[in-house]
Design brief:
By secondary structure, the protein is an alpha/beta fold. The protein has 14 helices and 23 strands. Strands 15-16-17-14-13-19-20 form a seven-stranded mixed beta sheet, sandwiched between helices. A hairpin with a 6-residue loop joins β4 and β5. α4 packs antiparallel against α7. The protein starts with a helix and ends in a 5-residue tail after the last strand. The site of succinic acid has 9 residues, from loops.
Length: 517
């Protein structure tokens, strides 16, 4: 471990603090919610490498997205520290691999228990640094823990095969083994769950892991590391490193000691990570962008479709890879759907995620606000109408009005690009084949949704959609038991479910000869 890792450092990104009870002139809450953590020691400002908490010479501030208030700072590490973290993960690998699946499962279970016991604090950290409403962050804390529980169970079910042999002197045996040191590069929109969805299967398979959380949301990751330490994972098994995204990413993808990279994030960054990982032929899992269609067929239950549409679009203020990007509504019920949906969108409460009853928190950054505005400007220039919202919210800072746009056409940018903001474009269609064709006309293939009752159509459409996830008569499809992953430029590999372990394992064939002698 270098001195740099051990020395205290100073912040490189100080910002002016704004009083927490003064958000755009409106009173929200009197006390900094981070000060109400039951376990203040879960707010860590050091990285976890080789079983030690380490500081750097430089640090970067983490801010509460609703207020701009600084809530902590974390080390700004780079190439050298990444090499050291990989080295620590390497040193820990033989002993971790040698543990029985039952022993690995027991530690994962302990981690799950600690996450569950501290879910309230994890949720508060997540709300503060990501901006999502506390009720959603609480849901995410449970969702994140459930991945660890799931893979604690799956660790015990890593089965091989005995294959019928052609030669009487031989037996063919197949075993599955962990790939080695893994790297996880995770996003800000699910600061807890995207880590556990990767760390759970990696650890269950007998791999060690270096985790690089998003710069915007490192505190949730470090709290998870503190709980992993408490659970008793051996030093170097789980490592969390914050800092320079480019330098850390380059080392994690280029270092021959890393055998697998799992990334959740945008498609352009995913392509870069695949290219950088190619020289050392790492196994990669890419969970990338989406452009989810939400189709409402003529026989759909409109009220239920509206409910599902709100859930599929406005979760995390539209900032999930599986959020609806395009609503395709049959012309017969276009007016009814638009009217009912618009009324519900107009009622969504915008505010700090810590305020009771808030549905839509701040967006993650000014860049996200600008991008959202640019989609709306592009659409209105091309003839769309904004029927609800359409502007930055009067609360200021990073808040944006939930928006509905009608008269959308495939010429508008959001038909091809991922919005990642609280904007719903509504298109009208006439028949099933047109709806499926429109839905599939995108380079992405992650999530899709549709509402309808005819069972024949349900099968036909579910099979025809070129998406890895299809929600039929529901807008909520995330589930640890189900395989999560995309097609086309949404990436490859599957996370969660019984398939989620495969991405962290390699298949070994053992030819056992000399049976007859
Ligand atoms: C994502 O947006 O990448 C994950 C969404 C989920 O797991 O529900």
């Amino acid at each position: 471990m270098s001195n740099q890792l051990q020395n205290g450092g100073k912040s490189i990104a100080c910002r002016t603090n704004r009083p927490l009870n003064n958000m755009g002139g409106k009173k929200t809450f009197a006390m900094n919610p981070i000060e109400t953590l039951k376990r203040p020691d879960l707010l860590r400002e050091q990285c976890f490498v080789g079983g030690r908490w380490v500081k750097g010479d430089k640090a970067v501030d983490v801010e509460d997205k609703a207020t701009g208030e600084r809530i902590g700072s974390v080390p700004f590490f780079g190439t050298e520290e990444t090499k050291q973290a990989i080295d620590q993960a390497h040193q820990a690998l033989p002993a971790w691999k040698a543990k029985t699946p039952v022993q690995r499962s027991a530690l994962l279970r302990k981690w799950f228990d600690l996450m569950t016991a501290n879910a309230g604090d994890l949720a508060k950290l997540t709300t503060a640094e990501s901006g999502k409403p506390l009720k959603e962050a609480e849901g995410e804390a449970a969702y994140a823990a459930a991945y660890i529980e799931w893979f604690a169970e799956e660790a015990k079910r890593i089965y091989g095969d005995v294959i019928p042999n052609a030669n009487p002197d031989q037996r063919i045996v197949v075993i599955k083994q962990g790939v080695g040191v893994c790297a996880a590069i995770t996003p800000w929109n699910f600061p807890l769950a995207m880590i556990t969805r990767k760390a759970g299967p990696a650890l269950a398979a007998g791999c060690t892991i270096v985790i690089k959380p998003a710069t915007e949301t490192p505190l949730s990751a470090l709290a998870l590391a503190a709980l992993a330490e408490e659970a008793g994972f051996p030093p170097g098994t789980v490592n969390v490193l914050t800092g320079d995204e480019v330098a850390i990413g380059k080392e994690l993808t280029g270092n021959p000691g890393v055998r697998k990279v799992s990334f959740t994030g945008s498609t352009p960054v995913g392509k870069l990570i695949v290219k950088q990982s190619a020289d050392t032929l790492k196994k990669v899992t890419m969970e990338l962008g989406g452009n989810a269609p939400f189709i409402v067929f003529a026989d759909a239950d409109v009220d239920k479709a509206v409910q599902g549409a709100i859930a599929a679009k406005y979760r995390n203020a539209g900032q999930t890879c599986i959020c609806t990007n395009r609503f395709l509504i049959h012309s017969q019920l276009f007016d009814e759907f638009t009217d009912k949906f618009s009324k519900q969108v107009a009622r969504l409460k915008v505010g700090s995620g810590f305020e009771p009853g808030v549905d839509i928190g701040p967006l993650i950054s000014q860049e996200a606000v600008d991008k959202t505005r640019s989609f709306i400007a592009d659409a209105t220039e091309k003839g769309a109408e904004v029927t609800v919202g359409g502007r930055p919210h009067s609360l200021g800072h990073l808040f944006f009005e939930p928006t509905v746009i009608t008269k959308a056409t495939p010429k508008m940018r959001f038909f091809q690009e991922e919005i990642f903001g609280p904007v719903s474009p509504l298109y009208s269609f006439e028949d099933d084949s047109e709806a499926v064709e429109l839905a599939n006309s995108t380079p992405y293939g992650l999530a899709s949704y549709f509402y309808g009752r005819d069972i024949g159509r349900i099968w036909r459409v579910a099979e025809a959609l070129d998406f890895g996830l299809v929600g039929v008569n529901t807008g909520l499809i995330s589930n640890v038991m189900a395989p999560f992953g995309g097609m086309k430029e949404s990436g490859y590999g599957r996370e969660g479910s019984k398939y989620g372990l495969d991405d962290y394992m390699t298949i070994k064939y053992i030819c056992l000869a000399g049976i007859e002698s």
